[in-house]
Amino acid sequence: MPTLTKLYTMKEASEHNSAGDCWVVIDGKVYDVSSYLDDHPGGDDVLLQATDFSSFYLFFHSKTQFRHGIRQAKCKNTCV
């Protein structure tokens, strides 16, 4: 696993909101979900519309779904 050294602000993470470059923040960790957009069962729109998914994600997804989805995403680092 790569060493994560860069800390991102929520503003920096929110600038990555296109189909080719989409980041989300869940529980303070920044994930690049660009490669997962086409596979997301709820469609890509929901991932492209918001950045901080902490409470939203955990409300709609079980821990198993979280682990499965996150395996397909790349953790960029922590958001401060």
Automatic annotation (TrEMBL):
Keywords: Heme, Iron, Metal-binding. The keyword Transmembrane does not apply. PROSITE patterns: CYTOCHROME_B5_1 (PS00191), CYTOCHROME_B5_2 (PS50255). The keyword rRNA-binding does not apply. Signal peptide: none annotated. GO terms for molecular function: heme binding; metal ion binding. One of its GO terms (cellular component) is membrane. Residues 5-68 form the Cytochrome b5 heme-binding domain. Belongs to the cytochrome b5 family. This is Cytochrome b5, heme-binding site-containing protein. It comes from Artemisia annua.
